[in-house]
Design brief:
Layout: H1 3-29, H2 35-57, H3 62-65, H4 68-96, H5 98-105, H6 108-120, H7 126-143, H8 160-181, H9 187-209, H10 220-244, H11 249-255, H12 259-270, H13 273-276, H14 280-298
Helix pairs in contact: 1-10, 1-11, 1-12, 1-14, 2-4, 2-9, 2-10, 4-5, 4-8, 4-9, 5-7, 5-8, 5-12, 6-8, 6-11, 7-14, 9-10
Length: about 300
């Protein structure tokens, strides 16, 4: 196992854990917010944090000589991952709960294997494929519950399209991330550009739609959790972009599924068993996701 691969796997694991914290906080904070404002707050807070980190640690003069196609690649990555992916994510959390959404997004490794093979000519060895299959099996066990935890009267598959849409967005965005990083090898600047453009675009959309910030009074703790969610997702996205420059795409995105056990545990603490309806099957599925992730780290 090369040091580069191991470093990338560790960064991807950090990103996965951070995304789990973000999803749990985002689920807790959603009370009172509209879906679109909740997503915009995430984008804005993340963009501000990443911009400050870039100002403190990056040589911004390189941006003057950066080719326009680099900005296009980062902008497309941001639009697909943040603008579309996070909107689908928030809708899915509202419909089926954070735990099941985390599991549905766990289909990302399945999509990423196809994307990596077609776009980057990256093919996984049998042990790594076994790890991906283990992760996806865990995802299936979590998401195939008969009842929807957030809306008990509906079947979970009926609302699964938004979680799976998030997974597809997360699997496609690395095409443009890799394209941008090939000419501007700074994950921090890249993710800041993508996040910033997405935040500006989302803000403009909200102005045009005249979308209200909330439908009811927003509790103070909900705002605190939403701001914390934005901070965690910004830093976790930065870690993910670092990992994408070091390790195969499918491995990075599969390790990102470490968010599932994290979001399940934190959601139980923050919103309770009644809202999340976490069963033994979900716990077993989350365990498989962790086992599969460990296989991806060590069975190189």
């Amino acid at each position: 196992m090369s040091e580069t691969y191991l470093a990338g796997a560790l960064w991807a694991s950090v990103a996965g854990i951070g995304f789990g914290v973000f999803q749990a906080f985002n689920r807790r904070a959603r009370i009172g917010f509209s879906v679109y404002w909740a997503t915009f707050i995430l984008l804005l807070v993340s963009a501000l944090i990443l911009a400050m980190a870039s100002l403190m640690s990056e040589d911004l003069s390189v941006l003057k000589t950066t080719l326009p196609r680099v900005y296009v690649n980062f902008a497309l990555a941001g639009f697909i991952h943040f603008f579309l992916g996070w909107t689908f994510l928030t809708i899915s959390q509202n419909r089926v709960g954070a735990s099941r959404t985390g599991a549905l997004v766990g289909a990302t490794p399945l999509f990423s294997v196809l994307v990596a093979a077609l776009a980057f000519d990256e093919y996984l060895s049998p042990p790594l494929l076994a790890g991906v299959v283990t992760v996806v099996t865990g995802v299936y066990l979590v998401s195939a519950s008969r009842k929807n935890g957030a809306n008990p009267g509906q079947r979970a598959w009926h609302d699964s399209i938004f979680g799976l849409g998030t997974a597809l967005c997360f699997a496609i965005s690395p095409i443009f991330i890799r394209g941008g990083l090939a000419e501007l090898p700074s994950p921090l600047l890249g993710v800041t550009i993508g996040m910033g453009i997405s935040a500006l675009t989302y803000g403009l959309l909200l102005l045009l739609r005249r979308e209200p910030l909330h439908r009811n009074a927003i509790p103070r703790d909900a705002m605190v959790y939403q701001l914390a969610a934005g901070a965690f997702v910004g830093l976790s996205t930065w870690a993910r972009w670092i990992a994408l420059g070091l390790t195969p795409v499918a491995v990075v995105l599969a390790l990102g599924r470490l968010n599932v056990p994290i979001v399940i545990g934190l959601s139980l603490i923050l919103v309770g068993q009644k809202a999340e309806n976490v069963t033994r099957r979900i716990v077993f599925g989350a365990t498989l996701i962790v086992v599969g992730s460990l296989m991806l780290i060590f069975f190189r």
